[in-house]
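Sequence, please.
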C-alpha cells in the first residue's frame, strides 16, 4: 500500500488530555481519534491491528470447536430484569426507550441473550456441550472514561459462552478456553500473567484473569517471587494459618475501659498504647444492599478487603456504611468501634489473624473510649463461620502456596474467564432433559477478551521513546519500504521490485511514497512501529539497501537479492521471540 493513500494523520505534539503512554502514542501515530468522551474511531492502522488480533482469536476458537455468531447490541430491558441485573448493574447501563415506550439497553455483555437463545432451542442434554462466541462492540456508561482505550464507554470485545449438562462439561469447557487464551496471547506477543480473579457482577464461582503488566494498569497483580501463584489484589491470599489454641499459651487479663479522646486511628492508638498495630484490631462497618450493617474486624496492620467480604456474604456488592447510620445503630462514631457489645442486628465477621489475638485492644463502641484485654469467647462470642480471610494481602507476605513472598505490580485486564454455574440458566429457564428424563439447569461459563483494550495494552508494553513497536504477528504491515528519493530511477525501480516480490511472498508492505524529507519519513516510520524498515537510498544502483529491525533498532546493509529470504527469517525470529 502507498503511504500517500493511507489515512494516517500523525501529530507532532501530544494532546494535553492524553495521560498514559498508549493513549499518547496511538493518537500521535494516527491510529485512533476521539469522537466523544470514552468513544474512539479506529483509523486504518488501528483497524489492521484489530483485524490481526481478531483473526488469531477466530483461529484458536475454531480449534476448540467454538461457534462464532452475532447477536444484537440493543437488548430488551425485560431480559435483564429477569436475570436481576437491570437493577443491580447500576449506572453503567445505557438505558433508553423506543417509540413504543419500551425499555431497552445497549449490551455491556450478553449472558442473558445467549442463555435465552439456548433456553428456546436446546432441550436435550444430547445437544450439549456447546461453545459459542461473538466479536462485537459493547457499551458501559463509565462515570469517568480515561486513559484512552483502557477505560472507555464503547469497546470491542470477544465474548464467549459455554453450555453444559453437568459440572464435568463446564470444567472441560473452562479448561479448553483457558488453553485457547494462553495460545491467543502467546501468538499476539503480549506479556501477561494468568491470575486468580473475582467474578464480581458476573456471578459464578471460579474466575481467572489474564493481566498484562503495565505502569498504566488500574489493577494490582499480586504474585509470588518464587512460584507461579498470582492473583488480583481483591482475591490474593497469604500463607497465614489460623491457630487452634491461641488462648492456651497466655493468661487472659482483666477487661479494662480507657479514655482515648485523641486516638481515632490505629496509628494514634498504637502510639498512645505503645503497642504494635498487629496486636490491635480495627472495626469497619459495611452495609449490604438490604441495608443491614456488618462489622468487619481485622488486625490493625491490615485493611479490610471489601471483595472478600461481599463474596463471603453472597452479595454482588457491599459499601462502607454511612457514619450517621452507624452512630444511630451502634451509639459510636468511626474510630471508637469494636466487636464487644454490638447490637444483635449487626452481623460480626472477623479476619482469621484478628481471631487469633489474645488480650487485644479494640474500640468500646463509645466515642473516645477503647477496651484493653479483649478476648474472644469471654467478651465476644465467635463462631467458626464468622471467621475467614477478610484482609487485603500485603507486599512481602508469605505466598499462600508457601513458596516465596508476595510482590505487587500494576496490570491491565485483557481477558477474563468465569464458571457461571446456573446463575443465568436458572433465572431464564434454560433447562434440558438429562439422561434420566428430568429437567436440569444448563451449567454455563463466560469468557471475554478485551480486543480494543489489547490495542492499548500492547502499546503500553511494546514502545520506546521513538514510538510504537508492534509484535510481528499483529503489526498493521510487516515491512515498511522507505525510498529516500523516488525521483531517482534506481531507487524507484528497486522500491517497485521489492514491493512486488515481498507482496508476492504474502507479506503486507507499506511504501512511503510521500514527498517528504528523509528525517520526516524516518520519524514517522519509528512512530508507527512496523517490524522491518527497508531504506532504499544511494546504494540502490549497487543493489544494496539498508534494513532496520524496529524492536532492536539494529541496522545492516543487505543485497537486494537476499532481501526476500532474509526478511522472512527476521519476521519468523521476531514471532518466535514473542
Amino acid at each position: 500500500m502507498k503511504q500517500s493513500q493511507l489515512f494516517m494523520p500523525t501529530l507532532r505534539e501530544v494532546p494535553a488530555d492524553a495521560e498514559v503512554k498508549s493513549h499518547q502514542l496511538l493518537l500521535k501515530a494516527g491510529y485512533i481519534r476521539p469522537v466523544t468522551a470514552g468513544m474512539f474511531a479506529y483509523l486504518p492502522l488501528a483497524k489492521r491491528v484489530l483485524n490481526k488480533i481478531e483473526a488469531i482469536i477466530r483461529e484458536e476458537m475454531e480449534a476448540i470447536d467454538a461457534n462464532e455468531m452475532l447477536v444484537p447490541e440493543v437488548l430488551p430491558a425485560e431480559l435483564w430484569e429477569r436475570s436481576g441485573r437491570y437493577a443491580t448493574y447500576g449506572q453503567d447501563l445505557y438505558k433508553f426507550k423506543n417509540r413504543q415506550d419500551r425499555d431497552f439497553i445497549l449490551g455491556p455483555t450478553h449472558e442473558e441473550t445467549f442463555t435465552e437463545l439456548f433456553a428456546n432451542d436446546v432441550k436435550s442434554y444430547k445437544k450439549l456441550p456447546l461453545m459459542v462466541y461473538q466479536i462485537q462492540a459493547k457499551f458501559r456508561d463509565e462515570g469517568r472514561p480515561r486513559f484512552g482505550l483502557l477505560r472507555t464507554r464503547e469497546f470491542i470485545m470477544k465474548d464467549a459462552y459455554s453450555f453444559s449438562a453437568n459440572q464435568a462439561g463446564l470444567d472441560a469447557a473452562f479448561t479448553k478456553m483457558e488453553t485457547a487464551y494462553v495460545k491467543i496471547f502467546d501468538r499476539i506477543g503480549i506479556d501477561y500473567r494468568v491470575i486468580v480473579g473475582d467474578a464480581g457482577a458476573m456471578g459464578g464461582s471460579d474466575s481467572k484473569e489474564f493481566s498484562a503488566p503495565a505502569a498504566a494498569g488500574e489493577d494490582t497483580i499480586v504474585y509470588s517471587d518464587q512460584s507461579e501463584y498470582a492473583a488480583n489484589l481483591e482475591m490474593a491470599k497469604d500463607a497465614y494459618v489460623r491457630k487452634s489454641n491461641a488462648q492456651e499459651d497466655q493468661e487472659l487479663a482483666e477487661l479494662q475501659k480507657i479514655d482515648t479522646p485523641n486516638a481515632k486511628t490505629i496509628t494514634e492508638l498504637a502510639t498512645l498504647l505503645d503497642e504494635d498495630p498487629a496486636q490491635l484490631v480495627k472495626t469497619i462497618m459495611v452495609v449490604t444492599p438490604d441495608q443491614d450493617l456488618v462489622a468487619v474486624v481485622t488486625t490493625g496492620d491490615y485493611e479490610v478487603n471489601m471483595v472478600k467480604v461481599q463474596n463471603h456474604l453472597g452479595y454482588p456488592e457491599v459499601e462502607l456504611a454511612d457514619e450517621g447510620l452507624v452512630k444511630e445503630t451502634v451509639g459510636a462514631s468511626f474510630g471508637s468501634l469494636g466487636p464487644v457489645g454490638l447490637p444483635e442486628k449487626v452481623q460480626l465477621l472477623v479476619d482469621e489473624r484478628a481471631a487469633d489475638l489474645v488480650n487485644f485492644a479494640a474500640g468500646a463502641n463509645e466515642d473516645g473510649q477503647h477496651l484493653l484485654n479483649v478476648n474472644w469467647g469471654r467478651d465476644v462470642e465467635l463462631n467458626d463461620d464468622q471467621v475467614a480471610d477478610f484482609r487485603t494481602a500485603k507486599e512481602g507476605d508469605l505466598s499462600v502456596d508457601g513458596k516465596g513472598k508476595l510482590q505487587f505490580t500494576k496490570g491491565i485486564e485483557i481477558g477474563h474467564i468465569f464458571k457461571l454455574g446456573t446463575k443465568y440458566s436458572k433465572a431464564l429457564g434454560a433447562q434440558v432433559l438429562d439422561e434420566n428424563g428430568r429437567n436440569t439447569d444448563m451449567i454455563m461459563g463466560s469468557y471475554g477478551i478485551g480486543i480494543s483494550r489489547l490495542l492499548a495494552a500492547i502499546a503500553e508494553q511494546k514502545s520506546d521513546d521513538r514510538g510504537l513497536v508492534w509484535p510481528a504477528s499483529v503489526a498493521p504491515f510487516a515491512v515498511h519500504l522507505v525510498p529516500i528519493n523516488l525521483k531517482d530511477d534506481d531507487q524507484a525501480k528497486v522500491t517497485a521490485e521489492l514491493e512486488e516480490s515481498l507482496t508476492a511472498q504474502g507479506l503486507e508492505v507499506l511504501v512511503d511514497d510521500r514527498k517528504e524529507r528523509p528525517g520526516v519519513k524516518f520519524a514517522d516510520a519509528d512512530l508507527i512501529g512496523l517490524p522491518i524498515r527497508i531504506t532504499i537510498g544511494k546504494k540502490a544502483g549497487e543493489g544494496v539497501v539498508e534494513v532496520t529491525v524496529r524492536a532492536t533498532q539494529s541496522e545492516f546493509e543487505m543485497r537486494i537479492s537476499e532481501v526476500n529470504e532474509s526478511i522472512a527469517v527476521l519476521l519468523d525470529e521476531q514471532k518466535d521471540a514473542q
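The longest strand covers residues 406-421.
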